[in-house]
Every structure is written in C-alpha cells, then in structure tokens.
Amino acid sequence: MSSDASRTTVSAGSLRLLQLTTFTSQFDRLMIAPMLVVIATQLGRPVEEVSHAAAVYFLCYGIAQVGWAVLSDRLGRVRTMRLALLLAMAGGLGSAVVPGIGWLVAARGFTGGCFAAAVPGALVYVGDTVPVRVRQAPLTDLMTSSATGMAAATVTAGAIAEFSSWRVAFALTALIAGALSFFMRSLAEPPLGTPPPVWSSIRGVLTSGPVLLVLVLVLVEGLVLLGPLTFLPVVLQASGLSVTVSGLLTAAYGASVVVFARVVKARTRTMAPWLLILVGGGMAVLAYVVMVISHGAVAVVAGTVLLGGGWAFMHSTLQTWATDMAPGYRAMAVSLFATMLFTGSAIGTAVFGPMVGTGGFTAMFGITLAISVPLVTVATLGRHRYATKGA
C-alpha cells in the first residue's frame, strides 16, 4: 500500500467513471422499490412475496463483498470491477426475462451479488489513491452519485414499469453495466502489493476494536436507514397515489442526499466527524417521528427528505472512518463495512415486508425510531472517543 504522502488526487475523468458506476449500481439496487406493486400484479403474487426479491438482492449484495475484496487484492481493483459489471449485465438481462417469482428472486440475488463489487470497489480505489486528509470530498462525490442513482431509480423505474414494462427497467441497467465494463478499461490500475492471506486480512480487521464498533454501527444503520426505504413508495401507493407519482415523490430522498452532500463536503474541514454523525442521526430520528405520526404524502415526503439528509451526514462520515481504520487491510475493511450495511438492509426488508403487506406502517416506523436513538448515541460517542484517542 502506498504511503499517504505519495498519493495524489484521483483524476477528474477517473472519478466521473467511478461516479457513473456507483450511480448505476444504486439505480439497480433501488429500482425494484417503486415496481413492487406492478410486479406483484403482473405475476399474480402478493407484494410481500415480491419483496423477497429485494431482500435476497440486499443479502447477496452484502455477502458477496468479502469475495470481491479477496479477488480485488489479487486481480486488481479495476479488473475486479470490470468482471463484476459483466456478470451484473448477465444477471440483469436474466431478471428481465424470468417467467415467475422464484426465478425473479434468484436472478435479482445473482445481480445483487455482482453489483456488490461496484460501490466498495470505487471506495477502495479512492482509498488507494487519495490521502486521507482530503479523502472525504471524493467519497462524498461518490455518495452523491449513488444518491442520484437512487432518485433516478424511483422516478424512472416506476414510470417505465407503469407505461412500458418492469422487464425493460431491469434490462436498462444490465446494458449500462456492460458498457461501463468496456469503458473502465481506461481506468488506471492502482499498484498492488503482495496480498495478505484471506484469514489474515479478516483477522486483521476483526481484531480492531474501532473496526468492530463501526461494523456493528453500520449493520444497525442499514436496518434503520435502508430497510424502510424500499417500502416508502408502497406507503404512498396505499394512500391512492399512482406508481409514477409515488416514485416521483420518493425521489426526494436522492435529491436530499445530493443537496446535503454538498453541505457535508463544505463542512468536513470545519465540523468534527462526531458532530456530522450527530446532525445526520438527529435528522433520521426526526424523520421517523414524523412518519409515525402520519403516513400521508406530506409526512412521507418530509420524512424522506430528512432520511436523505441523515444518510448524507451520518453514512458518509462512517464510510470515511471505515477507509481509515485498517489501511493495511483496506479492501477487506471496506467490504465488510458494505457487507454489514446491506445485511442490515436485508434484515430490515425481511422484517418489514410482512408488516407492509398488512398495512402495518406505524409498526415499521415505530421500530426504526426506537432503534435509531441508541444508534445515533453510540455512533456519536464512539467517533468522538476515536478522535480524542488520536487514532
């Protein structure tokens, strides 16, 4: 691994390519949310059953992280991302032609496992090439592109499903993934040292107290901030809104992340990381207070905006923390970070799916509110302690 002093900022062209990759990955991840009702109707299955495709996607996305980390330490960061995008294209095209719900769950799980290499691959690439003192800015740019992908997914996928077919939406990201794999051949490959043994990497990460803390925090964060996100369009559709309108309204999440990410980027030099976590966590808590009180369109959109702000402030700070804690095992640390995030998301989707299927929206938002308070408290205090110990 190169020393911090020897690194230079990643080129603008390379960063744009990484941003497009994270955009596509997050578009594919969230696109099923506004299409749940449409897919359920066309396949003749309940929404709860179709939501299994989302839960399995998130679970495979998380589980595959470690495998991609091991491969990237040996094959290279760029080569690994290119391979994963090619496989994601195959999975996406398979998702577009499935005959039934069982095949859809399998195809989405495979696709999620392949797209799993995209975001952590981009994060590790930045970690390998950008000094930690200026790293949060390009990492925030990647988060912004991810959020834009989420916003575009809720608007575009819902509209495509309503006016054309949900199969077209799945095919779209598949073809983009194939194109990205081709164009990524121009991305410079960071030099790799001798890769440590797999179990040595895992042990090096898991024997660090701060790393373990962050992994637990991001697991809970995935449940709290991502678990209910999949069902927000369904909440709006339950009040009588169309697929397209509900997707358009929940796109406020991505727009909020984009706006607040700019604030985070401007404040990283002047605000302590623990304070960024506190602000973001406070916004998430307020979001669930609002949505426990009301499930109307205004309340859900307000909560969606607050969740986007919470993600921008809190998650970007935890993410930067993850890239700095175990520099000798960065790929493994970042991959386990993503594994825990999307495992938490999968748990949330699996737990909340039956609640949503029976209209139990208050229970879903109440549970996330109850969990978010200790999450914010522990994350804030943990990050403050990490800083004061000079880590």
From TrEMBL:
Is Transmembrane one of the keywords UniProt gives this record?
A: yes
Every Major facilitator superfamily (MFS) profile domain range: 14-386
Q: How does it sit in the membrane?
A: Multi-pass membrane protein
Kindly state which keywords UniProt assigns to this record, in alphabetical order: Cell membrane, Membrane, Transmembrane, Transmembrane helix
Q: Which Pfam families match?
A: MFS_1
What domain of life does the UniProt record list for this protein's source?
A: Bacteria
Q: Provide the protein name.
A: MFS transporter
